[in-house]
Write a structure and sequence with these properties.
The chain has 38 residues and is mainly alpha-helical. The chain has helices spanning 3-14, 19-37. It is built from two helices and no strands.
Length: 38
C-alpha cells in the first residue's frame, strides 16, 4: 500500500470517526506538511 492510497483510506475513514480523531489526524497532517515545507 503506497502513501497516497493510505492517505485516501484514512480520509475516507475520518467521516466515521469522532471529532477528536479528526482533529488528531488534521494536527498530524499539519505537522507533517509544516516539516516538509520548513
Amino acid at each position: 500500500m503506497d502513501i497516497e492510497e493510505k492517505k485516501r483510506i484514512l480520509a475516507e475513514d475520518l467521516f466515521g470517526l469522532p471529532a477528536s480523531c479528526k482533529e488528531f489526524f488534521l494536527l498530524q497532517e499539519a505537522k507533517r506538511l509544516y516539516y516538509a515545507v520548513g
